[in-house]
């Protein structure tokens, strides 16, 4: 077991205490909000003048161009890395006239300062504050004057900061700042804390905010809707808070509570002042718990660690416990502003030409630098179980001791106070543990136990210790109390650390972690579900963005050698024909088809009319129509792309006459008008186009669809169309327009068309929908989205059976599913404005592999699957004028099409597998996946190891292709693949897709950043393969097998 010893103690008066900390990175409370690392500046003492603004006799080199102390700015920006700064008060604001603090400084009036009893020069006002925030790289947070201030003052202040129109105060700001840009102040506090010197009482304040709050907010709602209003609470366990939250819950975003530990009357000479200070944070946590029960909002918590001007080691420990409270309550704490930043009860002290980091600076520094997250590595607070003896003496406030141990959420006053965060990252996940030994005289022996993870390499320990709890830093002795650092090494495979923490000591440990999961796959080639239909390796073209023009057709400036004699991009054709091996291509839409006039796009191109395009906005040139679509498939009786055409009919603005004319144009063999038109347009070629697949409209249920219909309207029309179209060509395959497979629309359509259609289409896009894309769980929402697809197939299967039973099984064909639009689509990245051109990352690649696993596992019911779309538009291929790019999602499409489909010599049969794997338990998209998870045997499982397999029999050797996706973001997987009734037939091949970053993409500049890595392997035994997979990766194995003896 790894161990570390923090600090050095000259004398330990108490026997060592024994404690244990249990940490499971899977037990995440919430993402840590970086706004808890915030502060506060007030016009009080030397916080502004002599703090952020220099003393008169400071050396010039300490002063920035704008007149601020450089050394203070450096600590705020580079050391503490603060997020938000609250201003101008505090009590000060309740008599502050903000308009006095703008404009030429020599014209600004001096005013009596009523809160703290002095005078205010107004030389630091709104403009200076905003400029200081910009230099410090923090967000501003302005507290409004609801003491002497009026609603008009508040509205004017918001307009001054955020107004973008040609209004009085917006123009004043432009005049004073010399810039047209608004200040974009997001956070606005509705007054400061309730007390006798700031407010009247809770009823009058809440009534006032109830009336005035919406007006303040509405001031910028029209042009600037991103204001965040913060109500002024007290301490979280007061009638004031309850009253305010009852009245303000409809329109405030955050509720502030204020707590000061080390504040209050008590006997400071009884030897227990240390304990009262370090356990004061127990009251703050209780305030948070009570506030949590009063609201279902985030909390903005404005706090300081003690009321002393010069802080000692005891205050340092109290500050560390404050941050432990915030981390433990990350699901409800949105902001925490330590009061204050400089000089006034602050972690930083200044003197002329000097700066001092107080003892309380260091826990602030450690938490902000090591427990905050980043864009690519968010930080998640963990539920930590601490076994520790407790303090049973007097507390401040005294009610902490009175509530102690009353129930499960009572203050516990444990000597060992702890919090922890987990920071997952593809280059190495990290656990950070904060430990405060609050015992004044006894060191602590602590076992830290990690569940599901083991340590990697070395770990770092930071600790703050001094033999005296009264030790402080001074200008004469600035490093009397400081951060110390040690390095220790994990034993291989260990998941425990033994830490010895000295008395009254704060320790933080950082360690890289790794985890692995184990899974077993049982493969029996005799357990066949059904033959894999080659039509699941299909795609889709729509007149949208650059899918057609600039996709399969060249750009105007494409090189001539890239264009074939028919005018198509050769490089696209090659990828479609030789690598993706697409079976069927659906065209022309999609939403586009519901206002498409197919007759406009046949005949001489110079006579084809341009039309408004109603689905996506724009114009349609009609230079690519039915003849070009077929020609892209078939040229000179040779199928260039070797695909079959699939046409979707216009049931929006189109008529039945248009539909059967189109079928006649494509498939007619007689001496009829439209068959002859086809021959005329096709150079006299008498051969019909033989279009087999015809869809009865696209997404006719959707409000976005031109000519959308109710289910009953669509059913009646589709029945008429199906009857007529079969009269034109009885051999065609008709596909009904479903929704997503689990709606009443699908049930109604299947009931009405069960005797007339051959396939039922359903559409689903994963990664589509509202969610928090910055909470660190978007990877899981992407890769587990296909769980919902499998559920929709299961429900559709039942609806098909029900429709066939009710219509008479003997009258119905065995209807199967055409999943004729599917894929990952993040509607915030692929938008109509950019032609739905989405760039895909590794997470999307794994999602597509899981999609294809779903289709293979359901091969008995899924007959067709058309990836939407083929080129440029949410597509696996991107085309520039002279280059093509294989996106990450291209790789699984290629691997499945090449290794999971059958051949003329040997069909491919999907296998029923038994997979033992741990499962994901977090949030899903859509959310109902998680709601149904594990509710019964067929419900979504969200297994981390997602698998499908096919078997192709042969005379001597058979072939099993197995697709394995490790959907765990950070854990490697050790997978045992066990075969039954068959055994090793020789060395197997592997095709793996991996990158250390889940966000990795391919670009035209780096087209092989994510690619397929080919390998091979040997069997562990005659009937078992052991596969070790990287985290967030996929592997396809192609395994030769022979029958067991």
Give an account of the 3D structure.
- The protein is α/β, with parallel strands linked by helices.
- It is built from 22 helices and 47 strands.
- The strands form 9 sheets. Strands 1, 2, 15, 16, 17, 18, 19, 20, 21, 22, 39, 42 and 46 form a 13-stranded mixed beta sheet that branches. It has an 8-stranded parallel beta barrel with strand order 3-4-7-8-9-10-11-12, surrounded by 5 helices.
- α1 links the parallel β3 and β4.
- The longest helix has 22 residues, at 786-807.
- The protein is globular, with a radius of gyration of 35 Å.
The number of helices is 22
Strand content: 25-35%
End-to-end Cα distance, whole Å, is 48 Å
Task: Report the principal-axis shape.
Answer: globular
- Average pLDDT reading: 87
Give unreliable regions as ranges.
8-12, 195-203, 217-224, 295-308, 635-641
Fraction of residues in helix: 10-25%
Computed over alpha carbons, the radius of gyration is: 35 Å
Largest pleated sheet: 13 strands, mixed
Count of strand segments:
47
**Broad structural category:** alpha/beta
Describe, in short, the structure shown.
The protein has 1045 residues and is of the alpha/beta class.
């Amino acid at each position: 077991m790894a161990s570390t010893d923090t600090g050095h103690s000259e004398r330990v008066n108490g026997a060592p205490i024994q404690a244990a900390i249990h940490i499971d990175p899977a037990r995440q409370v919430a993402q840590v909000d970086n706004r808890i690392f915030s502060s506060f500046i007030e016009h009080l003492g030397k916080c502004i003048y002599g703090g952020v603004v220099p003393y008169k006799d400071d050396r010039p080199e300490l002063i920035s161009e704008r007149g601020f102390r450089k050394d203070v700015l450096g600590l705020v920006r580079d050391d503490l890395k603060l997020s938000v700064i609250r201003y101008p008060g505090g009590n000060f604001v309740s008599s502050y006239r903000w308009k006095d603090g703008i404009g030429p400084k020599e014209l600004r009036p001096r005013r009596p300062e009523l809160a703290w009893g002095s005078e205010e020069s107004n030389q630091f006002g709104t403009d200076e504050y905003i400029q200081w925030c910009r230099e410090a790289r923090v967000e501003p947070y302005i507290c409004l004057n609801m003491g002497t201030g009026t609603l008009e003052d508040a509205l004017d202040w918001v307009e001054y900061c955020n107004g973008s129109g040609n209004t009085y105060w917006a123009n004043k700001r432009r005049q004073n700042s010399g810039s047209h840009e608004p200040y974009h102040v997001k956070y606005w506090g509705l007054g400061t804390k309730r007390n006798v010197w700031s407010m009247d009482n809770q009823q009058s304040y809440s009534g006032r905010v109830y009336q005035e709050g919406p007006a303040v907010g509405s001031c910028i709602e029209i042009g600037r809707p991103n204001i965040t209003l913060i109500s002024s609470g007290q301490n979280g366990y007061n009638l004031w808070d309850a009253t305010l939250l009852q009245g303000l819950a409809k329109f405030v975003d955050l509720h502030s509570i204020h707590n000061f530990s080390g504040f209050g009357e008590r006997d400071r000479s009884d030897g227990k002042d240390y304990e009262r200070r370090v356990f004061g944070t127990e009251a703050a946590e209780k305030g948070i718990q009570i506030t949590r029960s009063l609201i279902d909002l985030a909390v903005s918590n404005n706090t300081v660690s003690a009321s002393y001007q010069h802080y000692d080691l005891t205050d340092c420990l109290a500050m560390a416990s404050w941050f432990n409270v915030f981390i433990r309550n990350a699901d409800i704490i949105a902001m925490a502003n330590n009061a204050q930043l400089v000089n006034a009860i602050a972690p930083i002290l200044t003197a002329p030409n000097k700066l001092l980091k107080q003892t309380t600076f260091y826990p602030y520094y450690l938490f902000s630098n090591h427990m905050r997250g980043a864009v690519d590595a968010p930080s998640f607070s963990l539920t930590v179980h601490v076994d520790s003896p407790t303090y049973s003496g007097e507390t401040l406030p005294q009610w902490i001791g009175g509530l102690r141990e009353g129930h499960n959420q009572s203050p516990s006053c444990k000597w060992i106070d702890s919090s922890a965060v987990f920071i997952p990252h593809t280059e190495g996940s990290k656990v950070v543990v904060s430990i405060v030994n609050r015992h004044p005289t006894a060191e602590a022996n602590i076992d830290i136990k990690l569940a599901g993870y083991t340590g990697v390499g070395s770990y770092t320990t930071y600790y703050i210790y001094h033999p005296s709890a009264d030790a402080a830093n001074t200008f004469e002795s600035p490093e009397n109390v400081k951060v110390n650092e040690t390095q220790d090494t994990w034993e291989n495979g260990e998941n425990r650390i033994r830490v010895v923490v000295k008395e009254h000591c704060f320790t933080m440990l950082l360690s890289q972690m790794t985890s692995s999961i184990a899974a077993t796959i049982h493969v029996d080639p005799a357990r066949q579900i059904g033959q894999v239909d080659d039509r699941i390796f299909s795609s889709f073209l729509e007149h949208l963005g650059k899918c057609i023009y600039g996709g399969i057709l060249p750009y105007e400036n494409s090189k001539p050698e890239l264009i074939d004699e028919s005018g198509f991009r050769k490089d696209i054709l090659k990828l479609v024909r030789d690598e993706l091996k697409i079976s069927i291509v659906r065209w022309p839409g999609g939403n586009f088809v519901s206002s498409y006039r197919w007759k406009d796009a046949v005949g001489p191109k110079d006579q084809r009319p341009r039309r408004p395009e109603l689905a996506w906005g724009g114009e349609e040139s009609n230079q690519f129509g039915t003849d070009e679509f077929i020609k892209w498939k078939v040229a000179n009786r040779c199928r260039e792309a070797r695909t079959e055409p699939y046409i979707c009919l216009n049931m929006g603005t189109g008529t039945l006459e248009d539909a059967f004319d189109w079928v006649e144009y494509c498939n007619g063999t007689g001496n009829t008008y439209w068959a002859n038109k086809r021959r005329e347009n096709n150079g006299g070629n008498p051969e019909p186009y033989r279009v087999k697949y015809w869809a009865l409209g696209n997404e006719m249920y959707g409000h976005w669809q031109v000519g959308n219909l109710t289910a009953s309207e669509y059913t009646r029309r589709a029945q008429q169309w199906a009857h007529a179209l079969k009269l034109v060509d009885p051999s065609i395959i008709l596909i009904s327009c479903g929704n997503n497979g689990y709606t009443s629309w699908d049930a109604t359509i299947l009931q009405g068309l069960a005797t007339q259609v051959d396939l039922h289409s359903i559409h689903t896009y994963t990664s589509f929908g509202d969610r928090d894309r910055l909470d660190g769980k978007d990877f899981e929402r992407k890769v587990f989205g296909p769980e919902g697809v499998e559920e929709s197939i299961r429900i559709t299967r039942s609806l098909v059976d029900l429709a066939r039973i009710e219509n008479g099984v003997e009258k119905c064909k065995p209807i199967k599913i055409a999943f004729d639009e599917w894929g990952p689509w993040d509607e915030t990245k692929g938008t109509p404005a950019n032609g739905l051109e989405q760039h895909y990352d590794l997470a999307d690649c794994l999602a597509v592999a899981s999609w294809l696993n779903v289709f293979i596992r359901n091969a008995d019911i899924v007959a067709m699957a058309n990836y939407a779309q083929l080129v440029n538009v949410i597509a696996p291929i991107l085309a520039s004028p002279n280059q093509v790019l294989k996106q990450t999602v291209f790789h699984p499409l290629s691997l499945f099409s090449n290794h999971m489909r059958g051949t003329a010599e040997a069909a491919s049969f999907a296998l029923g597998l038994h997979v033992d794997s741990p499962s994901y338990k977090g949030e899903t998209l859509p959310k109902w996946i998680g709601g149904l998870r594990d509710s019964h045997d067929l419900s979504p499982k969200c297994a981390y190891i997602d698998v499908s397999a096919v078997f192709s029999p042969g005379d001597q050797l058979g072939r099993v292709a197995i697709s394995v996706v490790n959907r765990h973001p950070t854990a490697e997987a050790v997978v045992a693949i066990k075969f039954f009734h068959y055994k090793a037939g020789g060395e197997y091949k592997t095709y793996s897709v991996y990158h250390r970053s889940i966000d990795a993409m391919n670009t035209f500049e780096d087209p092989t950043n994510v690619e397929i890595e080919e390998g091979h392997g040997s069997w562990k035994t005659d009937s078992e393969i052991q596969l070790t997979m990287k985290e967030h990766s996929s592997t396809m194995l192609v395994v030769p097998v022979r029958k067991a003896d």
